[in-house]
Amino acid sequence: MALELNLKEKFQRFGAAMFVPVLLFSFSGLIVGLTIIFKDRSFVGDLANPEGVFYRVVSIIEEGGWTIFRNMPIFFCLGIPIGLSKIAPERCMLATLICYLSYNYFIGSILGFWGVTFGVDFSQEVGGTSGLALISGIKTLDTNIIGAILVGLIMTLVHNRFYETKLPDYLGVFQGTSFVHIVGFGCMLILAFLTCLIWPKIQALINSMQGFLASSGGLGVFIYTFLERLLIPTGLHHFIYGPFIYGPAVVPEGIEPFWIAHAAEFSNMVEPLKELFPQGAFALHGNSKVFGAPGLALAIYFCSDKENRTKMASLLIPVTLTSILVGITEPLEFTFLFISPFLFFVHSILAASLATALFEIGGVTGNFGAGLIAFITQNWLFDVKNHAGTVVAHIVIGLIFTGIWFVVFRFLILKFNIPTPGRGGSQTKLYKKADYKEKEKNKKKSNLEEQAKVYLKALGGADNITHVTNCATRLRVTVKDMSKVEDAEVFKEGGAHGLMKAGNGVQVIVGLSVSQVKTKFEQLLKEENEKNNE
Q1: Is the pTM of this model over 0.85?
Q2: Catalytic residue among 77, 92, 187, 471
Q3: Could you read off the pLDDT of 293-304 as tens digits, one per residue?
Q4: Which of 101, 207, 219, 347 has the lowest tally of Cβ within 10 angstroms?
């Protein structure tokens, strides 16, 4: 039982660390979504002239919005030490960043010399199905966030183990972060070699599945869409959709270029789209972005505590609109991916079921890989001429699946008590008038430092605390003696919404200001520890 609680606690810490960069997605996704709309002639007319000042200004703003999406591996790599380092997280981040870049330089250099030996054509351009990527200008294998997370975990372990190692005086210059970097440097060299040895084989396995998928009809569509969604965190999803959307898996020039070139032609034909272009069934994976996103977002919202719903709405609405309008799903999907991989698995199953239903039942095909804007401008505006029934069926089936997403996600979150953002363990009780007045008085305690002081004292003081981290709404603390931790009502007096205890782990439900409270909490913790050591 103790081992189970320890593993659960470690997994929760990992999930909290993964959520650090996710919180940055909302604003960036909203900026990208709005700028794409403002560059589309269908919405802004002649303002979308590429030679005009308006278009160029919007393009500049859009580039800034893409920052986190184009550099996601780095942000996830740095999220690990923020959440899991036991001491001096800022120094752990520095060592992690340096070693992550070294890791990619090592891979690039190894493949530059012996790419053929490892089964990699390193002379290819990055992107597409090449299996290569540019990370901070370094040409390397595309391990996406999986490689970044692995490096982050290794470097955090190295930091926690060696940061405080005492070296002889004559080697004192190599202590601390320098020593962590030295150990990490060797680890990254070994990891880079293993990555070159193993990762191309995984990429080749995924790539080899395209022939089977293309010849398997509805089953192929299901498996294709399922894998395209499921493999997003690994970056291997490029090997699923790339050969179909941009390569010759089902049509020589790729589905997207072919559809754009022939959409007007198909619109003048009366035969069913399923007969005219059955290959377009492999470009239905964007429907989960348009119809799945609102369903799962509503489930997360209605499963959150009522007092948190206003805050959750402000978090969920921008990322949901971003997914629906332009098909950028990471801000929403990564909200629950690391909290519950099981939910992401179910999400992938539903995405595959929706695509298969649209093709087999609704007769829908085309180029539906992005968001609603592309649905309308690249498909429905053409389809409505002679295939209006297919468009209606598409929308009806999609909305039915929105409801299915909501019901399934809500059931699973509540049934298995999955700690999605905004959920807490606050007690329910009837309040007297005196309680109400006291509660209103405590509401005025909005000062972050005051909150942190209340929580520190209620947790048994600095001597009782071994580790502190946070997720989107909770302050997660590991304590030595749970008997020293006060009841939930004491924490509520400090502004908390509730309290959860498990083993030696305590979760204080703070709300979306938790990161600021944690900063104050750690400052107080440091001050208390320094006093105790004097």
Answers
A1: no
A2: 471
A3: 999 999 999 998
A4: 219
